[in-house]
Amino acid sequence: MNGSTASEGAAADEQSHGHARRSHDPDAAIADRRTEGPAAAGSDPERAPLPPGPDGVPVLGTLPRFVRDPFAFYDRLFAYGDVVSYDFGLWNNVTLFHPDDVQRVLVDDADRFRKSHVQRRSGVDFLENGLLLTEGEEWREQRTQLQPLFYREKIETFAGAMVEEARELVDSWDDGEVVDLVDAYSTLAMRVLGRTLFGVDVHDGDGYEVIRRAATSVQERADAGSVTAFLPDWVPTPANRRFARDTDAFREYVDRLVRERRGSDPADADDLLTLLVGLGEGDALSDEAVRDQLMTFLFAGHETTSLALSYATHALARRPDIADDLRAEAAAAGDLDAAAIRSLDLTDRVVSESLRTYPPAYVLFREPTEDVVVGGYRIPAGTNISLPIWRLHTDPRWWDDPESFDPSRWLDEDPDRPEHAYLPFGAGPRHCIGMRFASLELRATLATVFREIAFDPVPADAGEPSFEAAATLQPSEPLRVRVSKR
């Protein structure tokens, strides 16, 4: 993921094949480069110039450079300014690096931008009728229907279940055991989701394995470091075949959940599954929308949370001083109910810093429905716009020592930092509906786990992880730690 190598030569030294470590060139971002753009294009697309950007090779454009190392490619783009254009074959692309331009797309003029065709091709297109990908009035109706389940008062009733499941995870570990964090936290996140939002035990039967296989196939198909990510669905690549097989099995599993819940009295349960089944029976949602909605929450709800917990735990294992302070804070809080979890200031800062440094949703995509002017440049309708969240989170213009994992940076708000320099859950009307749920789960889990466990990284000299650019920010190597029970 990381870094800011502003020149071709420096970028060539990065790891290839979609893996990268951080390597910022601070000179590339000393000043607010918005002063370097066109002086007075105004908001008239006919007068505004197209953005600058790198040239590519015939037919493929800059795609070969992107596939070789997606993160280093974005770092090279940063040298061109805050609004940069480039082509992937027939795809026209623009990347926005300034928080104010991101705010324009996600918040101020959100109705003029829709989810990009690239997002639909990024491994999650099988969720086309769910909240993640629907548009317009259909999306607004779905959001309104689901929002009551995600009010703070409702979410905080899940705190006890989150803590109990985390304790069970701790109890399952042996002293001295080496744990793969992504595997462990994926199991935990799925159990929490099943218990709180679905009223089912996803580990009863084949549910967990079905969902994990589908998630793995999604990541493989969306791996931007592979040419297969850019091939049509009908091309019979191994990744496409596995994706079709595993997502079909995922659909069948969710259809089975719906059949089992149908006919039950809605008064008997107050969860997402029952709500959606009731909406389907009342014709407020189609059967496809019910299924895709459930699949959206099962996939996105466990994938992003398990990654966030894994990166935070691995970072704390490398910073035992911070881990010790977090452990003391959790121990002093007593019973970890919702009120106690809210009081955990350091834990909250650790979560914020981990999401800044390792955002699972590391890039967002939009496309304008009409020609627009952003940052003084014309962006034609249908252009794929990428919003590199990880790059905003580590831009030296907004963050001191951006590569350092430093929860203390959240003690005081920086009045000069743009609001949208930090957006781990997105922004605007389409920000993540599960933001409060995820935030509570992250804090509850870290507090529960760390007050009983100390971790050492494996290997002992493990440094910053490297990453793969898939549907979410994936570690390119397993994140392993050794358990020491307190």
Automatic annotation (TrEMBL):
Residues 1-56 are annotated as: Disordered. This is Cytochrome P450. GO terms for molecular function: heme binding; iron ion binding; monooxygenase activity; oxidoreductase activity, acting on paired donors, with incorporation or reduction of molecular oxygen. Signal peptide: none annotated. Its cofactor is heme. Residues 23-36 have a biased composition (Basic and acidic residues). Belongs to the cytochrome P450 family. InterPro entries: Cyt_P450 (IPR001128), Cyt_P450_CS (IPR017972), Cyt_P450_E_grp-I (IPR002401), Cyt_P450_sf (IPR036396), Cytochrome_P450_monoxygenase (IPR050121). Keywords: Heme, Iron, Metal-binding, Monooxygenase, Oxidoreductase. Gene3D superfamilies: Cytochrome P450 (1.10.630.10). It holds the Pfam family p450.
